[in-house]
Amino acid sequence: xxxxxxxxxxxxxxxxxxxxxxxxxxxxxxxxxxxxxxxxxxxxxxxxxxxxxxxxxxxxxxxxxxxxxxxxxxxxxxxxxxxxxxxxxxxxxxxxxxxxxxxxxxxxxxxxxxxxxxxxxxxxxxxxxxxxxxxxxxxxxxxxxxxxxxxxxxxxxxxxxxxxxxxxxxxxxxxxxxxxxxxxxxxxxxxxxxxxxxxxxxxxxxxxxxxxxxxxxxxxxxxxxxxxxxxxxxxxxxxxxxxxxxxxxxxxxxxxxxxxxxxxxxxxxxxxxxxxxxxxxxxxxxxxxxxxxxxxxxxxxxxxxxxxxxxxxxxxxxxxxxxxxxxxxxxxxxxxxxxxxxxxxxxxxxxxxxxxxxxxxxxxxx
Length: 366
Fold this sequence. Notes:
elongated, 56% helix
């Protein structure tokens, strides 16, 4: 009877105590979250309830599994497994707590500052800091797990003896990876590019969608994802349309006839912009910027609050202005000068002066 009750008491007591403690912690965090609406820290800490329960249950079992006497023949193996689970769950809990603190700090900063550029900068830094903390905790947890094996402890001396050679080899082999790692930190704290920035890279226009320690992802206008190493942004030039402010100025070019009504086009442009919700009202203009023997180049200048709106304004102006010219001033559209074809002479040469027409008489050398 004792062999049955003892394991039930040990295991059941550990599970029950874990559930009770987890419930109490969750209740306290929920009440703290209700009292302090200005910070989301307490609500975010509730995400660590599951890893906390795993840590608590594993620690209780690790300290009392000998009294349960379930695996007398495999006591060492059971202790090793519980130790590994305890280390892993502790790392999981630390990552959740660190993520809650970092996200709470970012949320408070975003609520206090209304500058979108500064908010995107802090979000980029927070994301990379969170990834660095996760990587460090993971490496430490794996190292702690390996050190629990006696064989790994015995090999420690030989590993330390060859650490110099291994460091050189690893440095040469991981040169590109380390370069991307430092480039990622440089991007995060150098404010070169941020999450949500509109950039042009290798002729592709898009928005920065993700930044990690080694690569960066740009989401293009047609929903494609361009992934490239972060070292690209520290070694090559690129366009950042969100740098220094999201407002943008765009242009629309028209190739028209010399008789185009420029003054009426200027009034029509203003009417189009007043009806366009994407126009921010900062500036507009229309001027003749170039001329050729057959056409003139007319440039319409418009403004918008960001890259998406400037695209909308440009296509709206282009479509409505062309439709207005077609309906009311078709003579202003470019004209193509054509000439009549001429009939070839009998010897295969084409006449230079006699066009071919239904009324023109045939000519030839006789």
